[in-house]
Amino acid sequence: MERTALLDTSTRKGYNSIEMKKEEPKAKAAFNQSKLNVGDDKCDVFAYKETLGRKVCFLKVFFLIFSLSSLFLQILFWILTIVTLGFYRLFAYWSKNLYVKVRFMESSNDEAEYLVIEDPHGIQVIKKICFTTSVMEHGPLRRPTKKGVMEEVPDIRFFTYRKIKYIWYGSEGEWLNPAELDSNVSLFDFILKIQFLFQAPFFLFKALAADLRGLSSQEIISRRQIYNSNALQLQLTPLGVILFKEVLGPFYLFQVFSVTLWYSDNYAYYASVIVVITVISAGISVWSTRQQEKRIREMIGGSVMVTLRRDGRDVQVDASEIVPNDIIILPSTTFILPCDCLLMNGTVIVNEAMLTGESVPVTKVSLNEADECGPEIRLSSEHNRHTLFSGTTILQTRNYKGQPVMARVLRTGFSTLKGQLVRSIMYPKPVDKNTLRDTFIFISVLGTIAGAGFIYTIIQMIIREETLAHIIIRSLDIITIVVPPALPAAMSVGVINANQRLREKKIFCTSPSIINICGQINVCCFDKTGTLTEDGLDFNCLKAVRKNREGKPEFTMEFHDLDPAKLNEQNANLDIVTAAASCHSLTRIDGQLHGDPLELILVEKSGWSIEEGVNSDEEGIDFDNVQPTIIRPPAEQSQFHPENNEYSVIKQHPFNSALQRMSVIVSMPSEHSAHEMIVFTKGSPEMVASLCIPETLPDDYMDIVDEYAQRGFRLIAVASRAVKMNFAKALKTPRVQMEAELEFLGLIVMENRLKDVTLGVINELSVANLRCVMVTGDNLLTAMSVARECGIIRPTKKAFLITHSKTEKDALGRPKLFLNESVSSSASDIETDSEVRAFDKKVLGQAMYQMAIAGPTYAIIHHDYPELLDQVTAICDVYARMAPDQKAQLIGALQSINMKVMMCGDGANDCAALKAADAGISLSQAEASIAAPFTSNVADIRCVPTVIKEGRGALVTAYATIKYMAAYSLNEFLTVMFLYNDGTNISDGQFLWIDFVLITLVALFLGNTRAATKLSPTAPPNRLATSSFYFSVFGQLVINILSQALPYLLVRSRSWYIPNPEALDNTTTMIGTAMFYTTCMTYLGFAFVYSKGFPYRRAVFTNLPLCLIIFVISALNCVMIFTNIKFINDMMGFVPIPSYGMRVVLLVFALVAFFMSVLYEHIFVDRFIAVHFENWLRQRRLRRGDSSIPAYERIVAKIGGGPSWFEKEINISKNMNVRKETVESQL
Q1: Class of domain 552-614+626-751
Q2: pLDDT tens column, 776-819
Q3: How far is 949 from 1009, CA to CA, in rounded Å?
Q4: Where in the chain is CATH 1.20.1110.10?
Q5: Which of 346, 319, 314 is nearest to 233 (CA)?
Q6: Whole-angstrom Cα distance, residue 742 to residue 975?
Q7: Fewer CB atoms near the end CB (10 Å): N or C, the chain?
Q8: Would you please indicate which residues are annotated as catalytic (active-site) residues?
């Protein structure tokens, strides 16, 4: 009976639902809708025609009479634009749907003239479809097909989106990038190793390796018509265009409206200054955009000259003229590749740090060394060992049989992997939607308040029988107070400063908007080797194999060197020494060996020498695959080796993380036979054991492996197989056949030490209540040992291992799962301080125990136990033997339970997870890489808390800036409301002083406060719209009402008070002066109220520029309050208050209001509302299972007390499946 999963992961409701569901049919897509693959994203495409179709019912007859559909719609569009004074066109610019509904009608893709493309983030663009027909002098049009060949077509319909050209394939009903049809190893494929169905068959590329003639002139012309130029062309956008797009934003248009209103209301000085501020703000934005474009152009670099083989001749052309399927001749010197290509012959050593962040040279081999493949095998990332990527650096080439090293071009321009890096920078992911949405909601709330003031103003002025024009101007003036002029610039200051501080610490960010997201991180994932531990490994010992008296294999004693004489004394198999010296991918560059540090240590320990080519002093000379790398043992070991004392490595199967092994074929020529060869394989103990003949494995094999693994050692199992075949057959025999029926040789035990900072950083993150997760390809027990040593497995918690049986099945045919308690760690295992120990005894939303799992078991749970996936993801902190694609799956699983994930890694195996995480940090020497948005030049994990601190600081700075601006707007709104009651307003000079000096200058320095030096156990709110936020803003509003109402009433009640003569537009009044004396200090008080440091930022007093600005402005305020300088009075529109005592009283009112604001914000809001009230609300929602609570919190709340749920869930799922099968059988 066919077995199906209990609960499909795509239809799970909640984290613990176990229901038998009937699969619902997928919603049928509209006839004009299709999908578009754009790098990592899938975009929706909607097809339209510009025709009569979009019309309202009552105009149908009118449209038909004129019968000039398209022309009439265009005329109607422009009439609407003119009648609405351009607002209709503006709204259509903001909302593409409004534009589409008037101009277009739905159409099939075959007939479409325009496309609306919507990316996963909701960003829409309209693209016009271009049309190309065959031209006689250029020959027929040819386009690639899914079969890997070119087909003639009469015409081609295409468009360009984000620098990529897409062609319509009517028979397939898809818009496709022709480069994907040739070879779809996109960035997503390169990282996740996903093989798409429309990739070209690999055997075609292998067959083309023998074609050394190159493209003909006609083929070149034909391909140029299909593919874009091989140039990462980035034309600098004209400054006028950048400025025009900038000022079309809602904020700047609102500023235009406000300034126009102010000029009409005789606020010329103030309006002029706001114009200057707005122009400066727009100029800074335009300058930033231009600088970003220049940085990208510098990253792209200039074009180079390359040698191509065309029509059988070698020609030199500019790299921009390269087309797919060209043959490029690679130079022997250092060279940066201008395109992606497949190596046709020879061997190439490249540095792929730009892609992976890992600077260890990588050896690329030709297509001739690829395994045999049939028509069903398609080009994918499994063939990366034959692929050279654009932007990577060729360090060395080795010729093949006297021929130059050649490669066949796969992808050009922006379709290359370097092109995708550039596009990812040019088109970054938008900022967090929740924060943006909350900001607009809050502005809407302020707008509502302003609306109330708008109505109040109209009523007051009607009562005073003022003119209609004056009523309109005064009432609209209230609306302009809602949006402060410096809001956009002030909100970006925190991120700009955080990014600059990160750069000072050698941490580079290609997408600064992600910095705010880092403030919401709650789980940090780490690779092990090279990230938590040192890159290099120390050789610990060797456990070889020998035959006992019964002829069975057994382990020898530990050997602490690779001396064959000592092994021979123990009757051990000496081939393990030869394997250690030969089974590697090291290469010699400029006389020095380069490669994996582990392999360098083993070769150095063996004492063997490596000679490449016929003459080791000439590394770039002819290289024949039958005369390959020569390795020789030391002279003193000659009695243990062949008579000529040398071995030849004729073929290498590089290490593959998915296969968990590498192998080499070594020739041992002798006088008797030249066909004696031996295959050496090394890899993980589990994988090598599965390839070995069982009789060659010692009985205690797994016990020994587990013993070393539990002690934290890294184990490499070594095996061999003797074969007799000629060179040609050895080179062509598939890898899987050569790596079968191996004889086990022994274990190499390596010691991998933690980096010095690892334990301290993990403790720092743990105390900050940030979950730490290890994701590694190493053995489970080794991973557990390292996890204990570095503190990921806490000393105060029990740890359990989830394993599966390879032989036992449950009633449903699924592999049985087991839960075993791991060896406990004592508190002495982790050196820590009292603070860490005290924290470990608390539970702050974390489980009381921890789990660990290996990749194969994780795959079984993912496939056979999907109902357990969320729980396992929420509890497991150690993931071992994880393949690169599984690492990315884990990141996705963590995100699916609403966790914000940071991933830190250093190598190619981590690229998938780094890209999938909310914030990925690549430990690399480059300033930017495809792997992650963050790149740290300091190769340890201290960058993780640094980025999180800066993220938290930037996030709370953004929140504080919004609250500061809101408080300022509401305070100014209240002042205007009080003055409107007297028929007056704030003077031009006072407006200027408040908005420019008191607010703008202060706001620009508000974000200069540095991030805290210590991570807080409580994370900042992950969204703006919280109860504490609204309590803060509206509580301050109440305080402001009191602080202004009392002085207002007090001044008006004095005998010396001079009332407003109620002359129209009179702003020089005593009541206006009194209100300014009170509020000018209140605005500065807001800066202190919302500059709270602890726990996410340092104290406000450390922000020296802000403190200096506040001090200077406060002094100037006091000068204006307590002096009667005529120049100041005239400029500010003051009517001096005759009583100095009253001036002191007004200042006291401001100071009392300031202290009330501080106490309210820091005591009531921050301690009572933000801590107790919001925690009470959260716990209440958590008990109710409210969906507003993140899924991982609900999971931990339910199962965090102990692991008993694991067996219960298995039993429940088992019983429900039995009932399901019973019901189905009865039916």
Answers
A1: alpha beta
A2: 888 888 888 888 888 898 888 888 999 888 888 877 788 888 88
A3: 12
A4: 433-506+947-1169
A5: 319
A6: 87
A7: C
A8: 527
